[in-house]
């Protein structure tokens, strides 16, 4: 499976550069401005687009400009402004880790439409959009009503925060705290963010009867190769169970053989942390997507933020467009990412039976926070459709779209 990310910039008078991954890491900062004279009446030809192909699915993200100059900053989470390097080529191929790192292939397309109507802030700064990476997948941020100098400083803080969160939760970084916990079975003096997310994950696991369970990592490792024999699967199942994790203020401890993955909840958690950071700095209108999108306030034309849900069976087709202002929406697709090289096993596993989930093609869940939407969508996708209502329970979440296999 290949993952390709390409940017097109059709605005007359704009400027930009292609970014690549020399050495397997992102390596460029892109700044692009559309002059006021060039952007007066939005049209289809003037819509910058980002199209990401992940296996057979396409994620389309568009941002329609308002009147005035539009500035877009882009740098990866491990880089900040001032570390610009040129790269060659007309696009970039994501590092191999992204081929299995994303929990879903059919995540929502973040359609940030400023529209051609009357702006909320007709004399204030134009929208600022950042695109980068978070937890091995594409991430984006759109801010409205923020002066560009202020927005640049805030984006720099967001980049630093995402990098710090990856240092806690990423399994693709051997130096992350989660990787160390899996290797050593115990870590002392964990940061508050680490224990906070673990407690939330274990709470959802208990509430869903284990349909969501962060201890399925040993099963993941099994299905990377051949289909496991019954005896091997039985032995691995003996290490799975959310109750095998002990979380205290001064330490986190795993029972022998138990390992964790937070890929079914961490993207949503990072979205919430970024949202909280921006809210604390007075940003009231934004669309934050660090793997799961969450909208605050409104678009530039006064309308709600809208998200398109991709059709799992038709590349480039949107099944439905749903409002996301004041809530988050997460989409899980069991076969969105495939664990093994042969493409037999989907990445969402049913912790109860220890086998890849097959009942859903995809399911989209809305909740007040991206953390909850992420975890509940994972739980529902892992279980039978008939269990959806009971898995939601009193979480306040709701299924907004589901496609049954």
UniProtKB/TrEMBL annotation:
Keywords: FAD, Flavoprotein, Magnesium, Metal-binding, Transferase. Gene3D superfamilies: ApbE-like domains. InterPro entries: ApbE (IPR024932), ApbE-like_sf (IPR003374), TAT_signal_bac_arc (IPR019546). It is an enzyme of class 2 (transferase). Its EC number is 2.7.1.180. It catalyses: L-threonyl-[protein] + FAD = FMN-L-threonyl-[protein] + AMP + H(+). Its cofactor is Mg(2+). GO terms for molecular function: metal ion binding; transferase activity. This is FAD:protein FMN transferase. It comes from Niveispirillum cyanobacteriorum.
């Amino acid at each position: 499976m290949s993952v390709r990310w390409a940017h097109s910039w059709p605005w007359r008078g704009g400027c930009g550069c292609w970014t690549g991954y020399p050495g397997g890491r992102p390596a460029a900062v892109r700044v692009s401005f559309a002059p006021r004279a060039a952007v007066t009446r939005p049209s289809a030809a003037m819509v910058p687009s980002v199209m990401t192909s992940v296996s057979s699915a396409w994620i389309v993200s568009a941002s329609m400009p308002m009147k005035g100059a539009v500035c877009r900053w882009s740098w990866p989470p491990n880089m900040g402004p001032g570390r610009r390097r040129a790269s060659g080529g007309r696009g970039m191929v994501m590092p191999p880790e992204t081929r299995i790192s994303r929990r879903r292939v059919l995540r929502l397309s973040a359609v940030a439409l400023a529209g051609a109507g009357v702006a909320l802030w007709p004399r204030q700064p134009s929208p600022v959009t950042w695109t980068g990476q978070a937890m091995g997948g594409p991430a984006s941020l759109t801010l409205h009503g923020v002066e560009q100098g202020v927005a640049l400083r805030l984006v720099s803080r967001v980049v630093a925060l995402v990098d710090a969160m990856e240092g806690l939760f990423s399994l693709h970084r051997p130096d992350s705290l989660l990787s160390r916990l899996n290797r050593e079975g115990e870590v002392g003096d964990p940061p508050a963010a680490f224990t906070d997310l673990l407690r939330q994950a274990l709470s959802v696991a208990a509430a869903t009867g284990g349909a969501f369970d962060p201890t399925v990592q040993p099963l993941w490792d099994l299905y990377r190769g051949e289909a496991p024999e019954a005896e091997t699967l039985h032995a691995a199942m003996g290490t799975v169970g959310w109750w095998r994790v002990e979380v205290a203020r001064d330490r986190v401890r795993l029972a022998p053989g138990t390992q964790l993955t937070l890929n079914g909840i961490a993207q949503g958690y990072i979205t919430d942390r970024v949202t909280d950071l921006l809210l604390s700095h007075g940003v009231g209108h934004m669309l934050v997507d660090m793997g799961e999108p969450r909208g605050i306030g409104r678009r530039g034309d006064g309308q709600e933020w809208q998200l398109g849900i991709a059709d799992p069976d038709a590349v480039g087709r949107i099944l439905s467009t749903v409002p996301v202002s004041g809530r988050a929406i997460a989409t899980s697709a069991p076969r969105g990412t495939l664990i093994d090289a042969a493409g037999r096993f989907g990445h969402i596993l049913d912790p109860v039976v220890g086998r890849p989930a097959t009942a859903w093609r995809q399911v989209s869940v809305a909740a007040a926070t991206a953390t909850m939407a992420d975890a509940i969508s994972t739980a529902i996708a892992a279980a039978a459709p008939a269990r959806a209502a009971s898995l939601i329970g009193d979480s306040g979440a709701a299924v907004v779209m589901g496609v049954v296999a």
